[in-house]
């Protein structure tokens, strides 16, 4: 799993092995909660195989905020960083193979690699990309119709449409499954 990332890390092999050894591998079935809303996040997950969704409960209704796939790291960032109760739940959509690292080990690694400009910049890029994705999705809710949000999803992140069940996509788009069916039907008629 970690070989694909090795070329991006300009550190000694023994240090690399030390960092990798802090991750633990687990295999979990679909619909497994890795973190529940209200818990304090103490783990960061790296996905080897599968898909994880991030969602929160809004008056008994699941609202999906993001999807993560192979090669992505995921946690409840606010909870993980600030040690406060998580506003979201992390749940597998598919059977997953994930590697997790405890916060104390993650913090030690981050503290050590902050002194290496290339690694520090890579971390900043990862945080920026995640923030960019959140902001793009948020702004889309303000300015785009559900139809346009679905078109954007198909064009910008087609793997989500291919792998994620429709009810989670509807939740992500802020619409019902019935509304999503109507949008898909309308698109099919235009072809």
Automatic annotation (TrEMBL):
<dbReference type="InterPro" id="IPR018490">
    <property type="entry name" value="cNMP-bd_dom_sf"/>
</dbReference>
<dbReference type="InterPro" id="IPR014710">
    <property type="entry name" value="RmlC-like_jellyroll"/>
</dbReference>
<dbReference type="InterPro" id="IPR000595">
    <property type="entry name" value="cNMP-bd_dom"/>
</dbReference>
<protein>
    <submittedName>
        <fullName>Crp/Fnr family transcriptional regulator</fullName>
    </submittedName>
</protein>
<feature type="domain" description="Cyclic nucleotide-binding">
    <location>
        <begin position="11"/>
        <end position="110"/>
    </location>
</feature>
<dbReference type="Pfam" id="PF00027">
    <property type="entry name" value="cNMP_binding"/>
</dbReference>
């Amino acid at each position: 799993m970690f070989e694909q990332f090795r070329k991006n890390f300009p550190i000694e092999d023994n240090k690399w092995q030390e960092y990798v050894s802090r991750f633990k591998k687990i295999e979990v079935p679909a619909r497994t909660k890795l973190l529940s809303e209200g818990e304090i996040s103490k783990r960061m997950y790296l996905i080897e195989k599968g898909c994880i969704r991030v969602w929160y409960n809004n008056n008994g209704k699941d609202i999906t905020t993001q999807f993560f796939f192979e090669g992505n790291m995921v946690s409840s960032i606010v909870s993980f960083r600030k040690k406060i109760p998580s506003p979201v739940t992390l749940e597998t959509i598919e059977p997953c193979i994930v590697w997790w690292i405890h916060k104390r080990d993650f913090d030690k690694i981050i503290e050590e690699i902050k002194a290496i400009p290339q690694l520090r910049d890579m971390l900043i890029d990862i945080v920026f990309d995640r923030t960019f994705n959140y902001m793009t999705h948020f702004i889309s809710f303000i300015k785009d119709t559900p139809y346009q949000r679905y078109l954007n999803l198909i064009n910008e992140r087609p793997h989500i449409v291919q792998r994620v069940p429709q009810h989670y996509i509807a939740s992500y788009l802020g619409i019902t499954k019935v509304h999503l069916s109507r949008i898909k039907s309308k698109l099919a008629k235009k072809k």
